[in-house]
Structure formats: structure tokens, C-alpha cells
Design a protein that fits this description.
The complex is a heterodimer of chains A (about 375) and B (about 325).
Chain A lengths: L6 H17 L11 H16 L17 H14 L8 H14 L2 H13 L4 E4 L15 E5 L2 E12 L6 E7 L11 E7 L5 E6 L8 E12 L3 E2 L5 H7 L4 H5 L3 H17 L7 H26 L8 H22 L10 H10 L8 H12 L8
Parallel strand pairs in A: 1-4
Antiparallel strand pairs in A: 2-3, 3-7, 4-5, 5-8, 6-7
Helix pairs in contact in A: 1-3, 3-8, 4-5, 8-9, 8-10, 9-10, 10-11, 10-12
Chain B lengths: L6 H16 L2 H9 L4 H12 L18 H13 L6 H12 L5 H11 L5 E5 L4 E2 L6 E6 L2 E4 L7 E2 L6 E3 L6 E4 L5 H32 L1 E2 L2 E2 L4 H27 L2 H26 L10 H13 L4 H10 L5
Parallel strand pairs in B: 1-3
Antiparallel strand pairs in B: 2-6, 3-4, 4-7, 5-6, 8-9
Classes of the chains: A alpha+beta (about 375), B alpha+beta (about 325).
């Protein structure tokens, strides 16, 4: 048991640090939830990719460095410590890519991953529907069999990044006559600019079009864009949910850097007593999250599956993130109200954390039933 | 980086757990709380036979230590089983004695301490010592140095009936005028954190068992979301305290140990509050065994560094993680 990194890991860290030092934009990019900011963030993805820093843990064939999970953690620590921009293709990289590695075909990986790595194709997710949120398996958007593929119809909503993204992935009901709602679902990728797709941006709390409604009217998707077997989509979507994907959705590097910035802000304000506990807890929470993740990564490397414990992780970071950004706004005093600061951007983003990627209520249900073994109850 | 217990460490924790499970610790705690130390002393010797105290004693004094990771694992088990006595104080005393320039006191006192023949307690700055009556070695740390106190003053009850606090008598042999305190205080803080984590894990475990069995409105109360979610929160708090405790045992930096202490103690205490609430009135009784852990979770919060002191250490740390 040790927390020591190898010489090679440290050399990797130094290489990442020096690259980031030379390339990270001196002033923050415009918000990635705006058209201008989206384009700037897409260009940043290309800059990262040009030197193989966009997906370090992927195989080299797809633009990565085969760096493994430990060096991915190292990279993320350096990345956020350097104040580098948010990742516009996070949905693709941390949700779709692991699914393709586990369940996709070679042809799909060869076709989809390289352009994801460079940001040429930015991905949105299409899970929720107006009547299917936490009860995702009740979704109704359907796929009807046609020559060489499927015709998708229905409505998806809360589709993050969809206002400006290129393609989307999600679940569709391809068999309406199954005994259980989570059967008969198929995991598909589709083009947001295909005929029959209408993207209707939704403005989040601060007015920025961070997500969208998708209206689909007989949108043709070829068979080559079905991931795994038709009708098995639920299992495919869930099988990676608890695996490294749960571990990689939010890296500790983000929170370590944010906590350090909060600490610096607190000190710059004369270390006010009132915020002392909250600032200390932000520092401690970042360390706890880092070590929790190191432990999970170590188990993952031993071949263990992580499973429902990713629910612990999700509740922790989403609540932690809000507490941290709230503290920053409080410290800023009347400036804390301003909407055009980095801290307020972070704050608004953090408010969505307990809601997306499975609400924290759903996560607590999973912890209660699957980790603690409590009887399933009425929800 | 491999932040994972190895097989030997897991085996050590499991064998300690098995031994303590068989020892019927709740009845030992009851005896101890009445001032009857015989069963506690017998258990103490078995804990020593398992090698626990030797982990804090350097090899030069017939020990195996210092081994903070194994000590943290051991203290998690001791906390899980609510073992009474000056456990933390004994390993802190061992560290203190072993770190003195004069090797005389260590040579004289440590072998018996490693073997579990003697318990030790420590008071700082004329404060309280835990279980001064049961301890054969009473160390008093004051501005003038480290003394072997000749006895203890009037005992006061703790909120945890298994703990008794008393000042130590002045005078006694002066062992050192300027003893190095930091390593002993750090180990005391770490082992208190680990013990608290164990207390929290036991509270969660017992409460989960209770809510599966207890039926109201025709169903186990554990099927209610209001119950399940409170326990989920307890699990989250404890599972994020665990890596802090083990990480601190590896690095032994002031910041990591302070972070582990405040987080483990707050997680254990929050779990105690949840455990009490979900047990209902039965949990509020001294007679029900849950009380042995409930009261300890409160006591450990302020022992060897209050939440505030620990947060100050984190904030004033120059070293980032």
C-alpha cells in the first residue's frame, strides 16, 4: 500500500505541466454554454489533441497516450491546477467512449473516437424525456425498424451541450411489447443535423443555452450506429455506469484546484473567521475525494469492478461542488452576485450536479438497496 | 501508487475482528464502566498478543513499530468493537517514551507496555488523563517537561460511561525536560481518527440490521426512503473518511492526520445521530448496547484535537496535498 508515484509517472506529470504552462490560454475562454465559447472550447480540444493531451488514457490509435488510469488522474490534477478550460466534449469522452470500448464494434471505435478526441465531433447525451427522468426506463422515444437501420421518433430533453453539439447518443424503445420497461431499449448514436431532428435550446438559470430539447421525426439511423445488440440498450447503458465511467466523470484534480483557489480567495480577503470551517472543509473534501478515487482506481487496476459504489462518489462530489462555490460567492460579498465571473459560472454549473447523471435521490436509493442491503421500498 | 491494503494487512484486521467478536466486548465495556477492570485487562493482553501495542513500540524496545498503517487498521477494529481503556493513550505514551534522548525510561517501561502487561495514560498541560485508575504508567506533560505521575486525582465521569477522566497528581519522576511531542500527538490523533471511524462503521452496521428487522405499518422500516437515505448519507460520510484515515497513516503529515481526525469524528458522530434517531426510544437507553458506541462517538470528537483545532491545522498547513 503506497501513495508514491513512479519515476515514469512523475516524468509524465512534469511533461503535462510544462505543456500546459506553455498552452493554457492566459485569460479564461468565454463560457462554453455560449456559441462563441463553444467554438473557443472546441478549438482548445483540437490544440490538446494535436499533442495527444485530450484523451491521455485512450489507446494511441485513437489519439491517446495509453497512459492508464493513474496517469489520467495525474494529468487531470495538472490540468485543473493550470487553470485550463472546461472540457466541451466531456459527454463523449467520459460517457460514450467507455461504452464503445466495452460494447462497440471495431468499426465504430475507428470511426467515432478519433474525431471525438480532436473535438471535431462534439457529443450530446439524449437520455431524459419529458415523462422519463429518474424513471428513465419508462422512456417512450421509439425506433422503428426500416431497411438498413432505424427510424427514430419522439422527444428527448435536458440534452446537455445539444444546443451546439454535432451528434448525440441515447436510448430508444425499439420493441414496444416487452414484459418489463427496461427491456426492448436500444443504444443508438445519431446526427443532430440529420433530416427530422429539431434542436430547441433551453436556457438554464443564468439564461445560457446549456441544454436542449430534441424533437425527432423519423430520423434515419443506420445499423452501424447501433451500439451492441438491439433491445439490450439498458444493460449496456448501465454496465459502464458503475465502472471507470463513474470514476472518471469528475476527476479529483478539478476539486483540488478549486479548493486551492477558494483557499487563496479566503486568504486574500483577510481569512475571515466566519468562512473558516467551510474553507477548511473544502480543502479536506478535495483530499478525501482524491484519496477515495486513488483507492477506487487501485481496485480497478486489480481487476475489481466498482459497481454501485460510484453512487457514493456522485453524491459526494455534487454536494461538495455546490458547497465550495457557494462559499466562494459568499466570500466575494456584493461581487458574489455578479454573473460574469468564473466563480458564478462554476456556481451555476454546480447547481445542476445533484440532478444530472442520476439524481442524488436515485443514488441514495442505490446505496440503500445495493450497498446496505435494505429492502426495496416504494419511491 | 497502489492505495490498497495488501493481503497481510487485510488478514491482520480480519483476525483482530474475529478475536474481538468472540470476546463479547459489550460485557467487557459494562464491567469497565462499573470500575471492574479484570475482564478489560484480560482482553488487553489478548490485544497485545495480537501485536497491536507492539506496532507503536520500536524494534529496539522489543516492538514491531512504528507501523501507523497497521495501527490505523487495528484501531478501526478496536473502535468497531467498542473496546474500552486508554488505547490511544498507550500508543501515544509508547511513541513519547521511545522518542526521548534518554533511553532509560523506554528500556524500563516499554517492554511491559508492548506485552500488554501495563496500560499507559497521558495528560497534557494539567488536563485530564483517561482511565488513570487502570493505567500503570501515567505520563504528565507540562511546560516543565515529562513526568511519571505518582497517582491521579478525583475521577470525573465522561459522557461515554466507559471513559473516566482525572487530572494526574503533581510530582513524580522527571523523565525529560523537553520531550519531542509532535510524533506522539500525531499518532494519538491518527489512532483516535481510526477508532472513531470504527465506531461509526459499527453504528451503521447495527442500525442497518435494526431497520431491516423492525417492522411498522406492516413493513420493515428500512424500506422507507426517509430511513434509507439517512443511512446512505452515513455510508457516504464514512466511506470518504476511510481513505483519509489510511492516507494519513501513510503520509503522517500534520495536515493529513488533522483532516482524517475531523472527518472521521464528524462522520462517526453524524452516524451516531442517525443511529439514535432510527432506533427510536430503545436507542436512547443505557441498557441497549447501541449506547456503547453512541456515547463513544461523542467523546472521541473532542479527544486529541477538537474539530476546530484540526481545521486550523489544515488551514495553516503550508503543504498542499
Amino acid at each position: 500500500m503506497d501513495l508514491a508515484f513512479t519515476q515514469e509517472d512523475e516524468a509524465f506529470r512534469a511533461e503535462a505541466r510544462s505543456w500546459l504552462h506553455a498552452h493554457v490560454p492566459a485569460s479564461p475562454l468565454p463560457s462554453l454554454e455560449t456559441e462563441e465559447g463553444f467554438a473557443a472550447h472546441r478549438a482548445w480540444e483540437a490544440e490538446l489533441a494535436a499533442d495527444r493531451w485530450s484523451v491521455v488514457n485512450w489507446p494511441r490509435a485513437y489519439g491517446g497516450r495509453d497512459a492508464g488510469i493513474v496517469r489520467w488522474l495525474v494529468f487531470e490534477e495538472e490540468y485543473y491546477a493550470a487553470g485550463a478550460p472546461g472540457r466541451v466534449n466531456q459527454n463523449g469522452i467520459s460517457l460514450l467512449a467507455p461504452t464503445l470500448f466495452d460494447h462497440g464494434t471495431q468499426e465504430q471505435r475507428d470511426r467515432v473516437l478519433p474525431s471525438m478526441a480532436t473535438g471535431r465531433t462534439v457529443w450530446a447525451q439524449a437520455w431524459s424525456e419529458p415523462e422519463a427522468g429518474s424513471d428513465l426506463a419508462s422512456l417512450r422515444a421509439k425506433g422503428v425498424r426500416t431497411e438498413g437501420g432505424w427510424l427514430l421518433s419522439g422527444q428527448k430533453t435536458w440534452s446537455s451541450r445539444a444546443a451546439f453539439a454535432d451528434r448525440a447518443f441515447g436510448l430508444f424503445r425499439t420493441d414496444p411489447d416487452t414484459p418489463k420497461p427496461h427491456q426492448g431499449l436500444t443504444y443508438l448514436m445519431f446526427d443532430l443535423r440529420a433530416p427530422g431532428v429539431t434542436v430547441h435550446p433551453i436556457r438554464r438559470l443564468d439564461g445560457k443555452p446549456a441544454f436542449a430539447e430534441l424533437f425527432l421525426d423519423e430520423v434515419f439511423v443506420p445499423d452501424e450506429d447501433v451500439i451492441g445488440e438491439p433491445g439490450r440498450g439498458w444493460r449496456i447503458a448501465m454496465s459502464t455506469a458503475g465502472n471507470e465511467r463513474g470514476l472518471m466523470l469528475r476527476s479529483p484534480g478539478r476539486f483540488l484546484a478549486a479548493a486551492d483557489r477558494l483557499h487563496a480567495l479566503w486568504q486574500s480577503q483577510g481569512s475571515p473567521r466566519g468562512a473558516r470551517t467551510r474553507v477548511a472543509d473544502a480543502l479536506i473534501g478535495a483530499r478525501a475525494y482524491q484519496l477515495f478515487t486513488y483507492a477506487a482506481a487501485s481496485r480497478f487496476l486489480e481487476g475489481e469492478t466498482l459497481g454501485p459504489e460510484s453512487s457514493l462518489n456522485k453524491v459526494f462530489w455534487s454536494e461538495y461542488d455546490i458547497a465550495l462555490t457557494e462559499t466562494a460567492l459568499d466570500l466575494l460579498g456584493e461581487e458574489g452576485e455578479l454573473a460574469d465571473t468564473d466563480w458564478s459560472e462554476r456556481y451555476v454549473f454546480s447547481l445542476a450536479g445533484p440532478i444530472y447523471a442520476g439524481t442524488n435521490e436515485i443514488q441514495r436509493d442505490i446505496i440503500a438497496e445495493r450497498l446496505l442491503g435494505l429492502p426495496k421500498g416504494r419511491r | 501508487m497502489r492505495f490498497l491494503l495488501d493481503a497481510e494487512q487485510r488478514e491482520f484486521a480480519a483476525s483482530l475482528d474475529a478475536m474481538l467478536t468472540a470476546a463479547d466486548t459489550p460485557s467487557v465495556v459494562r464491567d469497565w464502566s462499573c470500575g471492574d477492570h479484570a475482564s478489560g485487562q484480560a482482553l488487553w493482553r489478548r490485544i497485545a498478543e495480537a501485536g497491536v501495542f507492539a506496532l507503536a513500540v520500536p524494534e529496539a524496545y522489543e516492538g514491531l513499530g512504528p507501523r501507523p498503517v497497521e495501527l490505523a487498521l487495528a484501531f478501526m477494529e478496536l473502535g468497531r468493537h467498542a473496546v474500552p481503556g486508554p488505547l490511544v493513550e498507550t500508543v501515544a505514551a509508547a511513541t513519547l517514551l521511545a522518542s526521548l534522548d534518554d533511553t532509560g525510561p523506554a528500556k524500563r517501561l516499554l517492554p511491559a507496555l508492548a506485552a500488554g502487561e501495563t496500560m499507559a495514560t497521558v495528560a497534557r498541560d494539567h488536563g485530564y488523563a483517561l482511565d488513570g485508575e487502570a493505567a500503570g504508567i501515567r505520563l504528565s506533560l507540562t511546560a516543565e517537561g515529562l513526568r511519571l505521575a505518582p497517582g491521579h486525582g478525583t475521577e470525573r465521569p465522561s459522557l461515554d460511561p466507559a471513559r473516566r477522566l482525572s487530572p494526574l497528581d503533581p510530582g513524580g519522576e522527571l523523565l525529560a525536560t523537553d520531550p519531542p511531542l509532535a510524533p506522539a500527538l500525531l499518532l494519538a490523533r491518527l489512532t483516535t481518527a481510526a477508532q472513531a471511524l470504527g465506531v461509526g462503521l459499527a453504528l451503521l452496521d447495527r442500525t442497518v440490521t435494526h431497520v431491516k428487522r423492525r417492522t411498522q405499518f406492516g413493513v420493515p422500516i428500512g424500506s422507507f426512503q426517509a430511513v434509507g437515505h439517512q443511512l446512505a448519507d452515513a455510508r457516504i460520510a464514512l466511506e470518504f473518511a476511510r481513505p483519509l484515515v489510511l492516507g494519513a497513516a501513510l503520509t503522517m503529515t500534520e495536515e493529513d492526520v488533522a483532516a482524517a481526525k475531523v472527518t472521521a469524528c464528524e462522520a462517526a458522530y453524524a452516524t451516531a445521530r442517525t443511529a439514535l434517531q432510527l432506533h427510536g426510544a430503545i436507542g436512547y437507553t443505557a441498557e441497549y448496547d447501541l449506547s456503547l458506541w453512541l456515547t463513544k462517538a461523542r467523546a472521541l470528537r473532542t479527544a486529541w484535537g477538537s474539530p476546530d483545532e484540526c481545521r486550523d491545522t489544515v488551514l495553516s498547513g503550508v503543504r498542499r496535498w
